[in-house]
Amino acid sequence: MPKKAKKSAPSLSKTAFNKVCRQLEECIVGEHASAAFVCGGTIAIINTNTASHEASAKISKSKSKSTLKPSKPVTIFWTAKNDDSKASKLVLPLGNSSSSSSTDATTPAVDRLSQLVDDCEPAGFGKGQEAVMNLEYRKAGKLDPEQFATTFHPADFGIIENIEQVLVPNLNEANEALFTFRRVEAELYKLNIYSGPSGLFKKHVDTPRSKTQIGSLVVCLPSSFEGGNLIIEHDGKEADFDWQVQSADTIQWAAFYSDCEHEIKTITQGERVTLTYNLYIADALSGASIPSSIDPNVFPLHGELKTILSMPGFMKSGGVFGIFCSHAYPHTSKNASALLPSCLKGSDLVLYAVMHSLGMKVDVLPVLMYENDDDYNREGLSDGSSDEDTSYSTYKSFDKEVLVGDQLRGEFYAGDFYDDSSSKIIQESCERRVYKKPITWITTPTNGNEKIAMIYGSYGNEP
Ligand SMILES: O=C(O)CCC(=O)C(=O)O
Ligand SMILES: [Fe+2]
Questions:
Q1: pTM to 2 decimals?
Q2: ipTM above 0.85, yes or no
Q3: What CATH topology corresponds to 38-283?
Q4: Which residues does the UniProt record annotate as the domain Fe2OG dioxygenase (predicted)?
Q5: Is the CB of 255 under 6 A from ligand 1?
Q6: To the nearest whole percent, how much of the chain has pLDDT over 70?
Q7: According to CATH, where is 2.60.120 located in the chain?
Q8: For range 438-451, the mean pLDDT
């Protein structure tokens, strides 16, 4: 038995190192797989003919979705296209007793709904930089927010708080704020009507209107329709909001991160009337910040990572891990790096918080070049004999190098770097912007990452 007691464990062999990295990868991929990217619920309408406490009782017994207070019927006011001196008014759901109290009670409610449909303009979408109108891709009507008013506001029903809890949680380490306290602000964006038998909106992402935009909220007003499922995808997972069954008498809503690809299946009958809102990250109003009690160490990932990182000999002399984000971010503005940690979504936020709480320094950086090569997922080959620290960057070997920028910034884009015709100055300044330390890549971009890049180049709800 060797007498000499070792002061520290030897570095891991390549084989052992790869094994640990694979474990790390599994934990992170598991976190990506379990993270939420949507939330939603329903709000019953108080039937003004029955006592409201009956309605409330009925709702509180209904399933786990949203069991918030019921809503009064929703009124929409707009100016008629042909007669802008005349304000039109419609109450949904149709046939609710309160609709007969309207000023133009002589017009049947169902005709006023048809009038609203007629007064909408056709809704376009964006294909790359271009505004496009293509009824095969999107068939819907729209009113801009300055063209209508509504009595509905999502904040009245706790929807904003629901969204904050699921999509924008505040994670604090032992009461020490990781980020400034985050709130969600909803900005009314459009009224849309998708009409049977052929209304639809094919796969797209919601084009970020600002660097703090994090998601979209769709509120489906009570109006009977068939079809029209809203399907939202992320990272191979799918959420299917089937609103047709309760469409006639319920408000139904869904919120999701705006980089998640989504579509509206064909509306085969009726009118699917929605209010859409852009969701932004906003700092707490002064004095309004409630310290979060969600500590990153509650996540299973925390324990798993801690075990891995404390393995004797693992990355003994330090190093850099590379992990691909699960979501896309608007990151080209000048203050993107200051904003980004607090705009992180889903599993990216959890990873950031967990790693930070384990004492790691975490940066969010842009990937400037990544080639999807057949060989990219191959683990570094190893003869199992090396004890060298320098072998660390070989867990994943990418055939083409993955280029990472040294920070997020407005003037940075990959084209700078690759354009052969670029002047020397541009190339030199790009050279300085590339992250220089060797990176041990733990994950590969998921299907989603690559698809997102493509989608952003193609279909958005705006150019
Ligand atoms: O109406 C919906 O369900 C979603 C609408 C939508 O995706 C959009 O307006 O961009
Ligand atoms: Fe959309």
A1: 0.83
A2: yes
A3: Jelly Rolls (2.60.120)
A4: 183-281
A5: no
A6: 71
A7: 38-283
A8: 73
